Amino acid sequence: MPSAPPATAREVRLAAVPDGLPVPGDLTVAEVPVPTPAPGHVLVRNRAFQVFAGLRTLIGGAARDTPVPGLRPGDPLFGPAVGEVVAGAGTFRPGELVTHPLGWREYALVPVAACAPVDPALPDPLAALSSGSTAYGALTRTAPVRAGDVVLVTGAAGGVGSLAGQIARLLGAARVIGTTGSPAKAARLVEELGFDAVVTAGTRTDPGAFAAGLAEAAPDGIDVLLDTVGGHQLAAAVEAARVGARFALVGALAGQLAAQGAGASAPVELDGFRLVVRGVTLTGYRGSLHPGVEEEWAGRFGGWLRSGEIRFPVTRVAGIGRAPEALAGLVAGQYAGTVVVELP
Fold it and tell me: Which InterPro entries match (predicted)?
C-alpha cells in the first residue's frame, strides 16, 4: 500500500519562453501543495514520466493546432507518466499502477477517465511509457507494412524510431533502414535493434550527402517511410520511393528541433511530380483518428516483450531535479530510445 502523501511536493514549470532551443534555465522546479483528493479523480504518486521532443513546440510560444494546448510561463509541464494510486476512485484502488498524462510532477490529481491500468504482465512498468503505439498505428493503418517491403525510419534512434524499426520487421519487412546523426547510435541500431543499414551522412545539414547515403542503403528504393524528421530527409525519401510507396509522417523534428524559430512549423519542398508518377501516398498520422490502436498495441507489445522479440530502449534520468536538463539533453540529441525521468 502507498504511504500517506506529504504536505508538499515538486513539479516542473515553464519559467520563460525559450529563446531558441530550450536550456535548463527555461524551466524551474517548484514546491507546491500536494493536491487534495476530489470526486471523480485519483491522486497518483508518479514513479516516472516521459521526456518528449514535442514539448519544445508546446513551450515555444507559437503552438497552434496541436492536440494539447501550448504552455505559458508559470504553467506546469505535462506528459505521459506512470505512477501509484494513493487515493482511489472509480475502479482504481490504492497501490494500483496507472498511466496518465500529468507527468513532470511528483503527485498528480488525475481525472479517472484519463487513467489506464498498467498491464501487470509487462516486464518493466516503464514500458507503459513507450511511444510504440504511434509507430505501430502508422505501420498498420497509415502506411501498412507488407511482406518483403523495404522500410525507412527517420530519426531511428529516438523513442518512436527505435521501436518502429523492430515493429516493421515483425510485420514482415525484408529490409529496415534507419537514419541518425550519431555513429554510436547507428551502431546500436544495427547491433542491438536489428536494422540492416543506417544513414548518418548529411542527416542534419547536407541534403546531397544524405540523398547519396540513402541511395546506397536502398539502391532499389523504399516501399514504406515512417518519418519523424521531415526536412531534407523527407524530400530524399520521395526521390527514393518505389511505385505505390506509403509514407506515414509522425513527427517533424527538423522544424521542432531547429535552433531558430519556436518549433511550431517544418517547411519542406517536395517533388510533386515524383509523388504523382510513383503513386506515393503521404499521410500524417494522429492516433486519435484510429480508435483501438492503443489497446491493440498494448497487447502485442506485451507479448513481444515477454517473448524477447522486441526490445524497449530507454534512457533513465534520476530525480525530478534533473528534469530540466533532461529536456535540454533530449533536444540536443544526447539520448537514445525513450527518455524518462524516474522519481524516488
Answer: ADH-like_C, ADH_N_2, ER, GroES-like_sf, NAD(P)-bd_dom_sf, Quin_OxRdtase/zeta-crystal_CS, Zn-ADH-like_protein
Helix, coil or strand: residue 259: coil
User: C-alpha 328: how far from its chain's center?
Assistant: 15
Exposed e or buried b for every residue in 81-91, given b needs 16+ CB within 10 A? Answer: bbbbbbbbbee
Can you tell me the distance from the alpha carbon of 232 to that of 24, in angstroms, rounded to the nearest whole number? 29
Would you tell me how many other CB atoms lie within 10 Å of the CB of residue 40? 9
Q: Which residue has the cell 519542406?
A: 268
Domain with CATH 3.40.50.720 in the chain: 132-288
| DSSP-derived pairing of the beta strands 222-227 and 241-249 | parallel
Q: How far apart are CA 185 and CA 198, in angstroms?
A: 9
d(CA 303, CA 309): 8
Homologous superfamily in CATH for domain 132-288: NAD(P)-binding Rossmann-like Domain (3.40.50.720)
- Could you please report the per-residue DSSP string of 261-310? S-S--------HHHHHHTT-EEEE--GGGSTTHHHHHHHHHHHHHHHTS-
What class, spelled out in words, does domain 8-130+313-342 have in CATH? Answer: alpha beta
In whole angstroms, how far apart are CA 338 and each of 51, 62, 253, 303, 322?
Answer: 8, 25, 15, 19, 16
Measured distance CA(316)–CA(48) in Å, rounded: 9
C-alpha cell at 238: 520521395
Q: Which of 337, 135, 29 is nearest to 329 (CA)?
A: 337
CA distance 182 to 199: 10
Is there a contact between 343 and 35 (Cβ–Cβ < 8 Å)?
Answer: no
pTM of the model as a whole: 0.95
* DSSP summary character for residue 25: G
* 41-98 pLDDT per residue, tens: 999 999 999 999 999 999 999 888 888 889 999 999 999 999 999 998 889 999 999 9
Helix (H, G, I), strand (E, B) or coil at 162: helix
User: Which pLDDT tens digit goes with each residue over 268-313?
Assistant: 999 999 999 999 999 999 999 999 999 999 999 999 999 999 999 9
Comma-separated ranges of CATH 3.90.180.10 domains in the chain: 8-130+313-342
